[in-house]
From TrEMBL:
This is Anthranilate phosphoribosyltransferase. The lineage of its organism: Bacteria, Bacillati, Bacillota, Bacilli, Bacillales. It comes from Paenibacillus catalpae. The gene is trpD. Coiled coil: none annotated. The keyword Magnesium applies. Signal peptide: none annotated.
């Protein structure tokens, strides 16, 4: 069964998917364009998302969806080269604290330009937007303000709800389905500033190599897609983590243990977070040097990976050492204070 791109309909795509036939990249683009343009019914969107999940999403299908979502997004105009994002999929079901947000701050303190993309909590208690707000960061920057923030201090936050207005058409079916679908994978693939370096935490360990291959198709230069054996969408300090690393156009998949990073192993229960205020307090205590042990070490593991992917370390272990230096020197805390001050000034001026 073949669908010509110009003839793609939601019904035709759904029929193809339900017969366990993959969509081509162009067909996936056409389907997503129908959705993003508001021309698909909630039932059609739910049907396609469910059929894709049951069949198993392919590289071409995810790439096609992501390309169209990028086209429909608001964009932050900035130099893209060497720009890092730490946006993950969430959906692990484990209520950890905001590790990738803390890691982004540390990477920025180390000199990497960071365009952090994120949202409010979808499955956990506190998303990156929630915890940054609790820390005192103004999260509702316009694209122009985000660009200015990035230029001034080397980091900005882009609140996904403001940058992907067309995704509202899928909001009702996503909420009513209540299961993870292709839409959960798209946030990390649609950075509004076009970041070309990424650390992506993924809830589904079977998909790390696929997502890394999608990033390559989308023009990302270096990336690590991580999913731990104990179910975290982060690099774990409780169990090995599966990593699919994109470098020089090739994807290599391997396992990484905490010990290989020079870190101790802790029970997963020791990195559990809470509401935004609780997680904000945890991040402050890590950055101030008061919090040691598991909370600090899991941030070091992931921040170290950011520094490695950003090209500021030759190995993951060296990245961890640099991350520790950023905390111990006070630079990570200083960078957080700059973000709070700068976003406040930018939004106040406006």
């Amino acid at each position: 069964m073949s669908l010509m791109t110009e003839q793609v309909t939601m019904q035709g795509a759904l029929n193809k998917l339900m017969s366990s036939t993959d969509l081509t990249r162009e067909e996936a683009r056409a389907v997503m364009d129908i959705i993003m343009s508001g021309n698909a019914t909630p039932s059609q969107i739910a049907g396609v998302a469910t059929a894709l999940r049951m069949k198993g999403e392919t590289k071409d299908e995810i790439t096609g969806f992501a390309e169209v979502m990028r086209q429909h997004s608001s964009h932050v105009q900035t130099k893209q080269e060497g720009l890092l994002d730490t946006c993950g999929t969430g959906g692990s079901g484990i209520h950890k604290f905001n590790i990738s947000t803390a890691s982004a701050m540390i990477a920025s303190a180390a000199g990497i330009r960071v365009a952090k993309h994120g949202n409010r909590a979808m499955s956990g208690k506190a998303g990156s937007a929630d915890v940054l707000e609790a820390l005192g960061v103004q999260i509702t920057l316009t694209p122009e303000q985000a660009s200015e923030c990035l230029n001034q201090i080397g980091i900005c936050f882009m609140f996904a709800q403001l940058y992907h207005p067309s995704l509202r058409h899928a909001a009702v079916p996503r909420r009513e389905l209540g299961v993870r679908t292709i839409f959960n994978m798209l946030g990390p693939l649609t950075n509004p500033a076009g970041a070309d370096r990424q650390l992506i935490g993924l809830y589904d360990r079977t998909k790390t190599a696929t997502i890394a291959a999608v990033l390559n198709e989308l023009g990302v230069k270096r990336a690590m897609v991580v999913s731990s054996v104990d179910g975290l969408d982060e690099i774990s300090i409780s169990a090995p983590t599966q990593i699919s690393e994109l470098r020089n156009g090739e994807v290599i998949t391997y396992e990484l243990t905490p010990e290989e990073l020079g870190l101790s192993r802790y029970p997963i229960s020791e990195v559990i977070g809470g509401d935004p205020a609780t997680n904000a307090s945890l991040i402050r205590s890590i950055f101030s040097g008061e919090q040691r042990g598991a909370y600090r070490d899991i941030v070091l593991a992931n921040a170290g990976a950011c520094i490695y992917v950003g090209g500021y370390a030759d190995s993951l272990r060296e990245g961890v050492a640099i991350a520790a230096e950023m905390i111990d020197s006070g630079k990570a805390n200083q960078q957080l204070q700059k973000l709070i001050q700068t976003t406040g000034e930018l939004t106040h001026v406006s």
